[in-house]
């Protein structure tokens, strides 16, 4: 286990976003990696939009080395980042995703987390996560070790202050990014939270359901939609085509029709 697990406790500091100074070992690892890191510039940073090909990378994780596109394979994938190891909000989030993993498995979705620290640090952290946040479930998905900041750079997982430090030897704290990526390696949904705000894992699962149903049935989903509820027929589909495809439907407005799938 890592020697230092003290959190910053200033009342004016967002405690969930930051952790205490790294151990001597992790400081050494950071120094070694930063010595060989490339210059990060806005000109070289990919611009990721919905529909973009997810940038590929190779990285060490708690499950060993991966090629990201090979990891995705023919599955959907959720890539999500965390400000730092041994931080309270991140611990609750990673545990909640672990507890929901069977639901994601049913939907052919792989999970993969990221924090800008070493795989050794992540592995020590996992035991804490299992102690307090998984509701008895085993933590069973990888966490990327991004101490050289390359993945954070590729996916723009950094706020304004973090960007200022990208080319320094100081650790950075990634924001809470979420990328839902389909089997074609296309980015289908992006969420970005500040370090202080924990994510809603049920909302991430709901978005996966909405994307998959939309792909499979050619529909859209309304506000607050949950799996099993009525969906929206796109305006581009005529009434005749809608009846042939969906059977019965309700017309609320000429442009708003709902049906069941």
UniProtKB/TrEMBL annotation:
One of its GO terms (biological process) is hydrogen peroxide catabolic process. This is Thioredoxin domain-containing protein. The active site is at residue 90. Residues 48-213 form the Thioredoxin domain. The keyword Nuclease does not apply. The keyword Oxidoreductase applies. Belongs to the peroxiredoxin family. Prx6 subfamily. GO terms for molecular function: thioredoxin peroxidase activity. Keywords: Antioxidant, Oxidoreductase, Peroxidase, Redox-active center. The lineage of its organism: Eukaryota, Fungi, Dikarya, Ascomycota, Saccharomycotina. Thiol-specific peroxidase that catalyzes the reduction of hydrogen peroxide and organic hydroperoxides to water and alcohols, respectively. Coiled coil: none annotated. InterPro entries: AhpC/TSA, Peroxiredoxin, Peroxiredoxin_AhpC-typ, Peroxiredoxin_C, PRX_1cys, Thioredoxin-like_sf, Thioredoxin_domain. GO terms for cellular component: cytosol; mitochondrion. It comes from Babjeviella inositovora NRRL Y-12698.
């Amino acid at each position: 286990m890592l020697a230092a697990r003290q959190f910053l406790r200033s009342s004016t500091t967002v405690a969930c976003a930051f952790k205490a100074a790294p151990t001597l070992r992790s400081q050494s690892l950071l120094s070694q990696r930063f010595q060989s890191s490339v210059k990060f510039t806005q000109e070289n940073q990919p611009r990721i939009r919905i529909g973009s090909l997810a940038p590929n990378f190779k990285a060490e994780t708690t499950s060993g080395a991966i090629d990201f596109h090979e990891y995705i394979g023919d599955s959907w994938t959720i890539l999500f980042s965390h400000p730092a190891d041994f931080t309270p909000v991140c611990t609750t989030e990673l545990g909640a995703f672990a507890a929901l993993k069977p639901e994601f498995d049913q939907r052919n979705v792989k999970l993969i987390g990221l924090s800008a620290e070493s795989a050794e640090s992540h592995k020590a952290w996992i035991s804490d996560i299992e102690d307090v946040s998984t509701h008895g479930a085993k933590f069973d998905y990888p966490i990327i070790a991004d101490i050289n900041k390359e993945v954070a750079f590729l996916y723009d997982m950094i706020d304004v202050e973090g960007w200022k430090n990208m080319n320094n030897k100081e650790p950075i704290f990634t924001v809470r990014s979420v990328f839902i990526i389909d089997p074609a390696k296309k980015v289908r949904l992006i969420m970005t939270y500040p370090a202080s705000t924990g994510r809603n894992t049920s909302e991430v699962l709901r978005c996966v359901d909405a994307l998959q149903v939309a792909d499979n049935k050619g529909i859209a989903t309304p506000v607050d939609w949950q799996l099993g509820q009525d969906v929206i027929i796109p305006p581009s589909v005529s009434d005749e085509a809608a009846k042939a495809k969906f059977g019965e439907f309700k017309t609320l407005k000429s442009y708003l029709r709902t049906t069941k799938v």
